[in-house]
Amino acid sequence: MRLAGWRHGVLVMTLVAACAMNLSARAGDAAMRMPAGYVVGVDISAADPDTAAYVLREGQEVPVQIGGALFDGDQVVVREANAAVTIETVNDRHMRVDAQRSPHPIKGELPAGGRFSAFAAMIGELFRGRPEARTVNLIGRNDDALRLQIGRAVPQRVVPGTRLWVGWQGGVKPYTVEIRDRAGGRVLATTGASGRSAVVGLPREASGPLVLAVSDAAGAQVHVDLLADPTPPAVPAWISDGAPTPAFGQVASALWLLDRKPAEWDLHAAAIAAEAGNYGAAQELLLRLAEGKRPSR
After folding, report:
1. Whether pTM exceeds 0.70
2. H-type alpha helices, the chain
3. How far apart are CA 168 and CA 289, in angstroms?
4. Is the Cβ–Cβ distance between 53 and 42 less than 8 Å?
């Protein structure tokens, strides 16, 4: 009886060890999988968000988190009638999953999703509340003083032919944005603005040291120094490869540039983000840059 019991105990321990190894292998497999996309927006008004929506993964309910990766075989489940989860995936592109579209299966794999996941989480931090309902509003605190925060850290390198985005705070509208030759003061480009942001085109023939200046109706003026440079840092290919949509990739590219030291490509990064149009994360990034806040990871 003792021998039988001992054998039974060995058998149980062997099965437990085998199960543990199997679970460990499955966990390792999951860690090695490439994402198929990401959660980019969550609209949940329920008191307990975990009951309103979740991601069903291998039989487990995973909380939805902005910037969270979605894998092949996942299902996005939305229970509450007024809740929604916005996703971007390799197959669905930009999609809003509500209770009527639930459960929504996730399929496919991004070619470089593993390396891209850190940037996805960083992009998620840029969202506040309901990103689809936000607009760029740089009125800020209505300070009296005209202030230009973006690009103030170091002289900014800019690529001739680029449409530069600039945002500021305070001042009295209307505003004028100019790009001038630093040596002779010749105006190379100018545009007016009634709000506190503008896009101004840098001529293709621009060269050497330049100045970008913003002036208001009261005569106040702020500026940043520019240097025309036709060769910006090459954004790694895995950023565009890992992004489920072009807009997502543009914001990621901007964040990669903002992470460079010294911070001499901030205006170029803002120009890339501005190309994403009304994309929620791009708007949040531009707003933070205008407020003088640099995203960090």
Report:
1. yes
2. 2-32, 49-52, 113-124, 237-242, 246-258, 266-274, 280-290
3. 9
4. yes
